[in-house]
Specification:
Blueprint (H helix, E strand, L loop, with lengths): L1 E9 L3 H8 L14 E4 L9 E6 L2 E12 L3 E8 L3 E11 L4 E10 L3 H7 L1 H21 L8 H15 L2
């Protein structure tokens, strides 16, 4: 088993963060770690299926395994017993807005090995996703003339300077 996570504050109410976070098909607008997300069963609910494409990672067929509307969802992909990835996305209310936690767990026979092998990339992607989710939730969409990579790099810089 191998766990990865990032926690960060967002100066936006949980409802706004949930709106952005639960709309997987728009993730590619705010993080370069995701090329596309196709959600096959809408609205998002336990049992919903999605195909997620990310650079440097084979496409993953995910299924929502847990959902608490407005607060959290988990989706998972893999081969039971061999390797499984569980991605949890959660929000809690704070005095300034929201606290978000993005977590990824690998388990199964090869879970620890794959987690260790992909650790650098996974941590980079978690930072990109956290920074993009924070900025998009706080500011709204990026200017269409601004390349995603530049917008994301600025979001990452801001996230890193805002964390203790």
């Amino acid at each position: 088993m191998r766990d990865f996570s990032i926690q960060f504050d967002v100066a936006a109410p949980p409802a706004r963060v949930w709106e952005v976070m639960s709309d997987g098909e728009r993730w590619a607008e705010w993080t370069p770690s995701v090329t596309s997300v196709e959600i096959y069963d809408k609205p998002l609910r336990v049992g919903s299926r999605a195909l997620i494409r990310q650079p440097q990672i084979p496409p993953g067929k995910f299924k929502v395994t847990e959902l608490e509307p407005g607060r959290s969802f988990t989706w998972a992909t893999g081969i039971p017993g061999i390797i499984y990835a569980h991605a949890r996305h959660s929000i809690e209310s704070t005095a300034i807005g929201s606290r978000v936690r993005l977590a990824l767990r690998f388990d199964g026979l090869l879970g620890g090995f794959m987690g260790k092998r992909q650790a650098k990339l996974i941590n980079e992607y978690l930072v990109m996703e956290a920074a993009g989710l924070k900025r998009f939730s706080e500011e709204g969409g990026r200017d269409p003339g601004t390349p995603l990579e530049a917008w994301s790099a600025e979001a990452v810089r801001r996230l890193e300077t805002s964390r203790p």
